[in-house]
Amino acid sequence: MNVRARSRQVGIAAALVSALLLAVPYALVSGFDAQLAGYYTAGPVGAGGVALFALLSAVVFASVERGNVDPGTLAGALVVLGAATTLLAALWWLSVEPTTMFGEHRWLEYHAPAVTAASLPVPVSAGVYARELLE
């Protein structure tokens, strides 16, 4: 098994799942526009910042083997991007304030922790990729 290729695949998948998981409340919750906006903007950068870092991580994971930039440089950037994605997801989770929207949509209590958990493989995969690249 090629650990380097597999870690890239896992990193891309985890980053995309994290970004897509962020969109679930937007697609399923209606009638709570102001509360949903507050939910998405909680924390230092909100869910938009988490999605941005997750998608950027996916793009860097996908392009690291293309040869346009030194792979070692991109591997280091991936570790930082992955850690930032998970850190921002955790900060967003801790910043979310429960509202009346949570009473009608109980599953929202588990949404932010699920996004954080989904982002955990991103820095792990980036670290494994960097280790395999530099050996």
UniProtKB/TrEMBL annotation:
Q: Name one Pfam family in it.
A: DUF7548
- Assigned keywords, A-Z: Membrane, Transmembrane, Transmembrane helix
Q: Where are the transmembrane segments?
A: 37-62, 74-94
Protein name (database record): Uncharacterized protein
